[in-house]
Amino acid sequence: MTGVIIGTGSYVPSYVIDNNELSQFVDTSDEWIRERTGVERRHIASDETVVSMAAEAGRRAIDSAKIAPEEIDLIIVSTISSDVILPCAACEVQKALGAVNAVGFDLNAACTGFVLAFNTANAYMMSGLCKKALIIGSECLSNLTNWKDRRTCILFGDGAGAAVLRAEEGKAFLPSAHSDGTKGAALTMKSRHDRNGITKEILPQEMIKEEYFMKMDGQAVFKFAVKKVPEVIRDVMKSNDIKQEDVSYYILHQANRRIVEAVAKRLDEPMEKFPMNLNEYGNTSSASIPILLDELNKKGMLKKGKLIVLAGFGAGLTWGASIFRW
Ligand code: COA
């Protein structure tokens, strides 16, 4: 058995902050951000939460799959930025959608999270544990961003993307995924719950200590990504006996245009095979791949029977690539 994607959906907040607006409260410029990252705007939650965005993206994916919520038997929400810990976001999504027959859980593997959610759902299907799964990446990174730190706040945005998978007869492609905890210091953030049980989230941003925001060694992450992503893509293709000419798109985590370009160059593949939307949304962590997947689907760019490679990378450090047939 293998998991086949039968529906996609996404949700992004309507409130947008462009680079010029950002440069009014942090020392940066539209030119610097565009040149170094490719980001032009980011969508930022106002009333939305990880759960509300996940539920809406999930609802849209279920509609596009033309199934009933009751048919879903597994819900995985990949997130690092949920405002609720208990119950998990997946159970809240289950409640919102009426997916009463599903088991739900959250997964934290930062920006590789959606790829690992996809692998997990596939593994459930290969073992006969589930027939229809809803997998979601949903992030409210604006909650974790230090809006005074120009090295990070320019990069991130909020949103959610989702896909419905159905188990079908056929050979599954095996994924390739890795972690290297020894390099974890490159991208860190502490839990905002201090030892007295006071939630830092109720404090104004100025009062939150730096360690409770995302901290990143940008150059270390950049070097890691441009080395490991082409490697893992080559690995996954070799182990599944797939040639580059068989792949129609590489859907990469949308962190930085220069990273995507460097990966394409190292694989010696044309940029047309690497769709991007990070100019519009910035880096939305585990939501970036499913938001892009949904956009390509809506535009009719995904042709039946064609092969697609997904590749994620991020905190942990974690990285991985998976293949599926549309
Ligand atoms: N605006 C203007 N100047 C900035 C700036 C900003 N937003 N951020 C940093 N700078 C300055 C730095 O202070 C530095 O100045 P200095 O030379 O006077 O010290 C200069 O620009 C260069 O900084 P550097 O950090 O070397 O820039 P860079 O080319 O590495 O670009 C990133 C920084 C963050 C864009 C880049 O490293 C990157 O994208 N890394 C990967 C991050 C990522 O994708 N993380 C998520 C992974 S899931």
User: What is the mean pLDDT?
Assistant: 94
> Radius of gyration over alpha carbons?
19 Å
Q: How would you name the oligomeric state of the polypeptide chains in this document?
A: single chain
Quick one: how many beta strands? Answer: 13
Question: What this model shows, in words?
Answer:
The chain has nine helices and 13 strands. By secondary structure, it is of the alpha/beta class. Strands 1-7-6-4-5 form a five-stranded mixed beta sheet, with helices on both faces. Strand 12 (about 305-315) and strand 13 (about 320-325) form a beta hairpin. It is globular. The two termini are about 15 Å apart. The structure holds coenzyme A.
Top keywords for this entry?
about 325 residues; alpha/beta; five-stranded mixed β-sheet; four-stranded mixed β-sheet; 9 helices; globular; binds coenzyme A
Spell out the blueprint of helices and strands.
Blueprint: E1 2-11, E2 16-18, H1 19-22, H2 30-37, E3 41-43, H3 50-65, E4 74-78, H4 89-97, E5 103-107, H5 113-126, E6 132-140, E7 158-168, E8 176-179, E9 187-188, E10 215-216, H6 218-239, E11 247-252, H7 257-267, H8 278-281, H9 288-298, E12 307-314, E13 318-325
Helix pairs in contact: 3-4, 6-7
The chain binds coenzyme A.
Offer a quick outline of the entry:
By secondary structure, this protein is α/β, with parallel strands linked by helices. It has helices at 19-22, 30-37, 50-65, 89-97, 113-126, 218-239, 257-267, 278-281, 288-298; strands spanning 2-11, 16-18, 41-43, 74-78, 103-107, 132-140, 158-168, 176-179, 187-188, 215-216, 247-252, 307-314, 318-325. Strand 4 (74-78), helix 4 and strand 5 form a beta-alpha-beta unit.
